[in-house]
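A note from the maintainers: we've had questions about how concatenated examples are separated. There is no special marker in the raw files; a new sequence line simply starts the next protein. For clarity in this README we add a label.
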Amino acid sequence: MSQKKIKCAIIGSGNIGTDLMYKLLRSDKLDVTALIGIDPESKGLQRAKENGVKAIDNGIDGLKEQPELADIVYEATSAKAHLTNAPILKDMGKKVIDLTPAAVGPFLVPSVNLKEDEIPYLENVNMVTCGGQATIPMVKAISDVAAVDYAEIVASISSKSAGPGTRQNIDEFTVTTAEALCEVGGAKDSKAIITLNPADPPILMRNTIHVKTAENVEDKEEDIIKSLDAMLHAVQGYVKGYRYKAVPVVKGDVVTVSVEVEGVGDFLPKYAGNLDIITAAATKTGEVIAESLLKGETV
C-alpha cells in the first residue's frame, strides 16, 4: 500500500519551476499535480505533459479555477509576481513555499532553521535565493562559534542557467540575500553580490564567503572548521553536490570559505547547481509541511 501524499502545484514554468517539478516527482510525501505558466509553448509545460503533470497556461487564474489541485503551492516566478499572488494564495487557504526573493514570509534555510514543530504553522515561507541557500549555512556555522561583524558573499552562476525570472530578480537577490545573512546567518552586517558568468563551457555554481569576526579567531580555528564541516554535511543531506571548492581559511579576524554546487541534471545540465540548491531546499521544506498536514497538525 503506497503512502498517502499531499497535493502540490508549482507556479512558474521556467528553469527553477521545471527543475523543482522533477524533484517533486521523486518525493514520497508530495504529489505534484500541476505546473502553471503563461506560455503554452514553454519547455516547462511541455515537460509537465510528458511526465503526467497537468500543464496550466493561464497563470494563477488556472489554479483559482481548480483549487482542489493543491494544498501546497510553490511560487517560482519573480519577486514582483509573488507580491501579487501571495494575498490570492492566502485567501485560497494554501500553504506557500516561495522560491522568489519577495520575502513575504520568513526566511527558511533547511540546514539552519527548519524547525519541524514551527514551520507547519506558517502560511508562507521564503527560500531566500540560490546564493542565500548556498552561503547562509556557512555564515551560521561560523557565527555559532564566534560573533560575526560582517559577512560578504559572492555567488557566481552560469549565465546559461539564469532564466528570465532570475534575471528580473537580480536587484531583489542582493537585498534579500543580505538581509537573510543577518537574520538567519547571524551576521551583524552583510553584503551579497551575484555574477552571471558567460564562460563556455559553463561553470558550476561557485560561492565565496568572507566573514569578519569581532575578534581574532585563530585560536578557535579547530572549532570553526568543525562547525563548518558539520554544516556542510547537513546541507549535503538534501543537496548531494554541495562541497568545498577550497579548504576554509582562518586568518586573524577573517574566515574565508568557498563552496560549489554541482546539480543532478534534472532539467538543465549539472552545471546548474544554482537550481538544485534552492529547489532541493524547497522540496525538503514541502515534505516537512506535508508530514504535518497528513497528521492534521497544521492550522
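[label: protein 2]
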Amino acid sequence: MLISSPIFDFLFKAAGWKLVGNIPRDLDKTVVIVCPHATWKDFPVGLGARSLLKLPILYWGKKELFDGFFGGVFSWLGGYPVDRSKNTNLVGSIVDIYNSKETFHAVLAPEGTRKDVDKLKTGFYHIAVQANVPIMMIGFDYVNKEIKIRDPFYPTGDFEVDKKVIAQYYSTIPGVQKTWIKNYLAD
C-alpha cells in the first residue's frame, strides 16, 4: 500500500493546499472522518494530505469503486471496499479489525455521498464507540485550500449529544453549507 510519495506531496503543495493541524503520533487507532464530501477532487486532495502526514491511513469506499481495472489501484492506495447495499453487520466487522490491530487508522466520508444530506451515516460513530477509539475530524476547506485537522474527539456514547460537537466543528469550515449541520445544530 502506498502511504506517502514525493509526487503526492509535490502535487498537493503545487495545487496550493496546506495542512492545518496534525494527528497526534501517540494515537495508535482512530476513526477519521472527512467533510464535506462535495467533489471527486476530495480523493486526490486527501491522498496528498495523507502523504504529508506520513500516517498509514486507510480508507473505506463503496465496493463499486473496487470493481474492474481501477479496483486494484484503489486497493493499492489503501482502500477497503464496503458493501452498502445490504445489512452485513459492517460496523461489527470493522470493530473486529480495529480490535485485532495494534495500530489502525481509517478514513471515511460520513455523508456517504457527494450530494447534500439531511443526516450523517452513523457507522463511523458506532465503530469509534465500540472499538473505544477517538474520532479525528478533518475538514476540507476549499475556500482557503486547507485541510483542517481537529484535536481528537472521544465520543460519549450518546450520539444525540455528540452530533452537536461534530456539527459545530464542521460549521467552522468555510464554504460548508450542509443541511445535516443545520439539522444537528437545531436539534
